[in-house]
């Protein structure tokens, strides 16, 4: 048995697993991966992972939300140390987002298993379902943490109108069993997740890893300005109730609102808009659009929400429009557990890694778990800050550095006596 100082991951084994899983759902024309939640390719990926877990001497299982697990039993079964992420993808995805955290978690457990190390606490790899949002996102981790609702199970649909219920039933699953996938807080010692940064900070500063101190909160809105459709040639400018001009005014307000009401980490994005009736010779009578805004502070998120509503109201009065908004999604900010981040920093220093502490600007399954149990994340660099794209990439040596940090941290956590 190797000493803790000499425990290392096998990067070639990690590489092989990543490339094998990337082939499931890959489109050769655009090089993107299409493994969206509860699609045929997603289920094929889950079957591959289950087989891989079993082949490496771990106990494989899945729950009612189709979260896939692999367990390395310790002297005490609970509370367990969890490590993982997700393997579902956005359309035309890269090969690392989510997948990397699952494959690295698997590698860490099989290294410990191969070295015949029996931990004091059991470790469980978990691959959560639908993190990427085909049916709204974080389905698996919501089930895991007990925050999944009957309403979501029954009513969630994807952009093509396919119901979550039907997608699960098509693969022989009873959707109601997802509500039984909950783990109690006293069953969770801690949760760790390794992920690509999805931003440029580590890459630009040539750092090997990032230790995540907090994960930003976000709100996602759908909005509508309603004015009056009319003839583009015969309607004088001062008679118009142009819904698109309302959107244009609001878009220009975003920088001011962020400067006056936001913080250094605030972000706001209008990522989608539809102009109706959509004719070149018609004044737009309606515009429907999205707003995504984020910050790690709940107070700032609330201030931004109020400021956006005031701006919408003022623009509506000035332009003679009506506005509506609906909150489609809301994820609360979560801070990493200080005990875990200190342990990660200690292990990074022991391994001689170049690291920094940082914020996550994207949501993760860790955010849900962190609301009921101690949580921390490791980031590795994203080349050029690219993600959700076939251009997404991380150097193998950086993956190896992050994976060894995960392995050494899991070992330290697992070998401490129960209750510590």
From TrEMBL:
Residues 217-315 form the Peptidase M20 dimerisation domain. Keywords: Hydrolase. The keyword Amino-acid biosynthesis does not apply. SUPFAM superfamilies: Bacterial exopeptidase dimerisation domain, Zn-dependent exopeptidases. GO terms for molecular function: hydrolase activity. The keyword Hydrolase applies. It comes from the Bacteria. Belongs to the peptidase M20 family. This is Zn-dependent hydrolase. It comes from Luteolibacter algae.
């Amino acid at each position: 048995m190797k000493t803790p100082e000499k425990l290392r991951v096998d990067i070639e084994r990690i590489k092989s697993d990543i490339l094998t899983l990337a082939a499931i759902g890959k489109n050769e024309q655009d090089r993107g991966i299409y493994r969206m939640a509860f699609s045929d390719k997603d289920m094929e990926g889950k079957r591959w992972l289950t087989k891989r877990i079993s082949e490496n001497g771990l106990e494989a299982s899945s729950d009612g939300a189709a979260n896939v697990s692999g367990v390395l039993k310790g002297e005490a079964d609970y509370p367990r140390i969890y490590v993982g992420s997700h393997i579902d993808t956005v359309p035309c995805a890269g090969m690392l987002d989510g997948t990397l955290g699952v494959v690295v978690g698997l590698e860490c457990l099989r290294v410990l298993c191969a070295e015949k190390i029996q931990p004091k606490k059991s470790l469980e790899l978990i691959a959560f379902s639908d993190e990427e949002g085909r049916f709204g996102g974080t389905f698996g981790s919501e089930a895991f943490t007990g925050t999944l609702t009957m309403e979501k199970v029954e009513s969630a649909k994807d952009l093509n109108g396919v119901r979550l219920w039907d997608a699960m039933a098509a693969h022989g699953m009873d959707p109601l069993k997802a509500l039984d996938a909950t783990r109690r807080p006293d069953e969770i010692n801690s949760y760790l997740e390794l992920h690509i940064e999805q931003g440029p900070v580590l890459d630009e500063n040539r750092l090997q890893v990032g230790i995540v101190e907090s994960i930003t909160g976000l709100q996602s809105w759908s909005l509508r300005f309603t004015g009056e459709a009319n003839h583009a040639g015969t309607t004088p400018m001062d008679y118009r109730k142009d819904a698109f001009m309302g959107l244009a005014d609001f878009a220009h307000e975003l920088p001011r609102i962020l400067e006056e009401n936001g913080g250094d980490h605030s972000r706001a994005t209008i990522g989608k808009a539809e102009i109706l009736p959509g004719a070149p010779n018609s004044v737009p009578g309606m515009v429907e659009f999205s707003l995504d805004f984020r910050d790690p502070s709940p107070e700032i998120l609330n201030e931004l929400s109020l400021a956006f509503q005031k701006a919408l109201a003022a623009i509506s009065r000035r332009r003679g429009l009506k506005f509506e908004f609906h909150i489609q999604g809301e994820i609360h900010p979560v801070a990493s557990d200080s005990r875990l981040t200190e342990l990660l920093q200690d292990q990074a220093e022991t391994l001689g890694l170049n690291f920094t502490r940082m914020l996550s600007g994207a949501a993760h399954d860790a955010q849900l778990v962190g609301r009921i149990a101690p949580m921390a994340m490791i980031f590795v660099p994203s080349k050029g800050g690219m993600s959700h794209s076939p251009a997404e990439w991380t150097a193998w040596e950086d993956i190896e550095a992050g994976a060894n940090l995960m392995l050494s941290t899991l070992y330290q956590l697992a070998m401490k006596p129960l209750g510590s």
